[in-house]
Write a structure and sequence with these properties.
The structure is a single chain. This protein has about 375 residues and is α+β, with helices and mostly antiparallel strands. It folds into two domains: about 1-195, 2-Layer Sandwich (Ribosomal Protein S5, domain 2); about 200-370, GHMP kinase, C-terminal domain (Alpha-Beta Plaits). Helix content is about 45%, strand content about 25%. It has eleven helices and 13 strands. It has helices at about 1-15, 85-100, 125-140, 145-160, 170-175, 215-235, 250-255, 260-285, 290-305, 310-320, 345-365; strands at about 20-25, 40, 40-55, 60-65, 70-75, 105-115, 180-185, 190-195, 200-210, 325-330, 335-345, 370, 380. It is globular, with a radius of gyration of 21 Å. The mean pLDDT is about 95. It binds alpha-D-galactopyranose (GLA). Alpha-D-galactopyranose (GLA) binds next to helix 5. Alpha-D-galactopyranose binds near residues 35, 165, 166 and 168.
Amino acid sequence: MKTKIQEKFKALFNEEGDLYMSSGRINLIGEHTDYNGGYVFPGAINFGIMAAIKPNGADKVKVFSLDLDEYVEFYLTEESIPEQHWARYIFGVCREIIKRGGKVEGFNAVFAGDVPLGAGLSSSAALESTFAYALNEIFNGGSIEKFELARIGQSTEHNYCGVKCGIMDQFASIFGKEGSLIRLNCKTGEYKYFPFHPKGYRLVLIDTCVKHLLADSAYNKRRESCERAAEAIRKNHPEVEFLSDAKRVWLDEVRGEITEEDFIRAEYVIGEVQRVLDVCDALERDDYETVGEMMYQTHFGLSHLYEVSCEELDFLNKLARKCEVTGSRVMGGGFGGCTINLVKEELYDNFIETAVKQFNEKFGHEPKIYNVVISDGARKL
Ligand code: GLA
């Protein structure tokens, strides 16, 4: 990938660029908790986005996407927003740095990546983080704090891509560390690295290769449900800033005041915040069976209460149970993408073989299998 990027950079701009990269992410548990001020437990992975970048002394950004074979130029002013979806991520990062008083001037860039698109592995966060990290190094002498770099990616999604996402993906992509998952308290920003080397188990993703339409608007609707539930609870308990601050019984108190739909969404979130803590405790005891059981509970909640699963994901989840997989659940925003599975070494081959075969029989195409390695996040190469 490195050579291809540099060759293209040279062909387009007559020199070599400096190389930066950042990663996609997995999340062991803690789904849809980030924008509710709860805990998440992600890690960066060995699939990422790499970019060659160099200032060009002008006021224009010139970017080439190797994977899409597409070239885009834009100015750094608000009106110059590009039409191409992929270029908006880069434009947004530039604008968000500038809005915060940081510096960005014209630059040339060529980038490519191997994060599967639409699989729930946060290819967009990897792209945002690569550029946020690089532009901080190149134009700001690294003076923007790492957490702010993650927020720059998040604001890009909010303001230029229409997704009111939480901070998890960009955080993981920036803060990722080889061999460690990171428990982040999304309310306070406190985080802790947990070395993750489950002896005798493997972590594998199965990609349904489906992405259901309207996922972005459904995502934003989930967020609104949670905000309404939190607001109702806050009337009785003013200390509730985010839904994750609420106790389960406090939710019961307002059952008659909110819609049943908002109620079950909130019920899921409050349960999920607790599960992250339970999983971290279990990990400290090397108790992977409990970790796995919590993953199944999360899947149940995401499927029946939060309603962000789909037929293909539920099918893979049920199959995992049948194959005695320790833990399995839909990962990321939902509505397609991957399941994440914690499976004993000796059961791995049978599980994968069965899943590929039976999924293909039922849905007419094979799922993809990703054996992920927990890796470093944003960096200069
Ligand atoms: C997407 C969002 C994240 C998070 C997850 C669900 O990946 O970008 O902020 O909300 O969905 O946990």
